[in-house]
Structures are given as structure tokens and as C-alpha cells.
Amino acid sequence: MKLNAIEKALMNNPVRASLQRWYEAPLLERLGGRVAGLRVLEIGCGRGVGTQILLERFGAAHVQAFDLDPDMVEKARRRLARYAPDRVRLSVGNVTAIEADDQSFDAVFDFGIIHHVPEWRSAVAEVGRVLRPGGRFFFEEVTRHALDRWTYRTFLEHPREDRFSAEEFVAECERHGIGVGANFRNRFFGDFVLGVGRREPARRTS
Ligand SMILES: C[S@@+](CC[C@H](N)C(=O)[O-])C[C@H]1O[C@@H](n2cnc3c(N)ncnc32)[C@H](O)[C@@H]1O
């Protein structure tokens, strides 16, 4: 679901960008390494700060990024206009039906989007589908613990039903063949979870 006006203001400002650049990205890099020369997907890219981090800090060769909100994609387009078209591709899209072939990415990044998706399990399944075997899923997510807080319920808009804890999110990744194990961290009293999983080779069915 799209952000309400308050959350949009919280996302589209320099404080959010600094948090992403100087806290989330370094922690994700410690957990999962860089993606130098690789083909990367960013889901729910917002105004494109994450994509810029993937190109510059993580060394991605090519980033495909999308967001449900055309307004956010337009902001990202302006921010990323300086990069050659063969390095960045932006579009409007929905994480529950990613427009990409199976196993087509070396890495997928999720900077705080899946908690916005009512069918969050379908989003995780789609990430598992588009990752190649051995590919990595980098995630920063907001847990039920945060979404149940009065501040979140009063000022922000999120799906109310069936939200996840850190462990439930990790278990869902594993169910879709993305092995995380203990490679995740709870932060801010359990409000956030950051981690990196690796897509296992396809399982034999017979
Ligand atoms: C909390 S914002 C995070 C934006 C950006 N990743 C960041 O870290 O600043 C969540 C983003 O996910 C997008 N979003 C929500 N539901 C989505 C969906 N089903 N598919 C794709 N994007 C979605 C929203 O439009 C919003 O831009």
C-alpha cells in the first residue's frame, strides 16, 4: 500500500537518507558483503536513495528498481538521471508480481517495504523466485512490534492484519529457499530487523 502524507514526509527527507546511508547500508554490508559488478533488484525504491547506495557503495553494475507509487518513481528518476541508462532501470511495479524472469538477479534489496504489503508472504515468494541460486536477499524490515505501537497506528498507515516478527519474516524467507539462519539482527527494541539470506539451489522434487 502507498504511504500516507506523514510517512511520505518522513521518507522523503535528509534524515531518512542519512539513516539509510550511514546506519542501514553499513550493517547490511557487514552481514552480506558488497555486490560489485552484479545485477541487482531494489523493491519499493521510494525516491531512489537506496538505488544510489547500491550503485556507489555496494558497487552494483546494474540496478533495476520499482515502486508502487508513480510519484516516488518520478522522484527516483530525477535523482538518478545522472547515471547511464545501462546502469539503472526504474519502473512502477508491485512486489507481489515482479516483472522479471525467474532467477534473473544476483541480489535483491528491501529497504523497509514488505511490511507495507498486505500479502507480504507473496512478496517474499517473489523475491525467492527472481533470485538466482546463490543470490543474496538484503533486508531491512519493520516488525509487528513497531506497527503495534500507538505512534505507528495513529500517524502512519499500514496493513493491520497478519504482520510479522523478525523470526516469522526469516522463517518465511527460508520457506522460499532463502537461507538466513542467524544472519539477522534485531534493532531498536525489536522494531526493526536487518539481515541477509542466500538463495539455495533449487530443491529436487523427486
Ligand atoms: C517505507 S517506504 C521505503 C522507501 C525506500 N525504500 C526507503 O527506504 O526510503 C515503502 C515504499 O514501498 C512502496 N510500496 C508499498 N507497497 C508496495 C508494493 N506492493 N510494491 C512495490 N512498492 C511498494 C511505497 O510506495 C514506498 O515507497
The gist of it:
By secondary structure, this protein is α/β, with parallel strands linked by helices.
List the helices and strands and how they pair.
Layout: H1 5-11, H2 14-32, E1 39-43, H3 49-56, E2 62-67, H4 70-79, E3 88-92, E4 105-111, H5 120-130, E5 131-142, H6 144-147, H7 150-155, H8 166-175, E6 178-179, E7 184-187, E8 192-199
Parallel strand pairs: 1-2, 1-4, 2-3, 4-5
Antiparallel strand pairs: 5-8, 6-8, 7-8
Bound molecules: S-adenosylmethionine (SAM).
Describe the structure in your own words:
With about 210 residues, this protein is of the alpha/beta class. Helix content is about 35%, strand content about 25%. It has 8 helices and 8 strands; from the N terminus they run ααβαβαββαβαααβββ. Strands 1, 2, 3, 4, 5, 6, 7 and 8 form an 8-stranded mixed beta sheet that branches. The longest helix has 19 residues, at about 15-30. The mean pLDDT is about 95. The site of S-adenosylmethionine has 24 residues, from helix 2 and helix 3.
Give the overall shape: globular
Percent of sequence in beta strands:
15-25%
Distance between the termini: 39 Å
- Helical percentage: 25-40%
Care to count the β-strands?
8
Task: List the defining traits of the structure above.
single chain; 206 residues; alpha/beta; 8-stranded mixed sheet; globular; binds S-adenosylmethionine
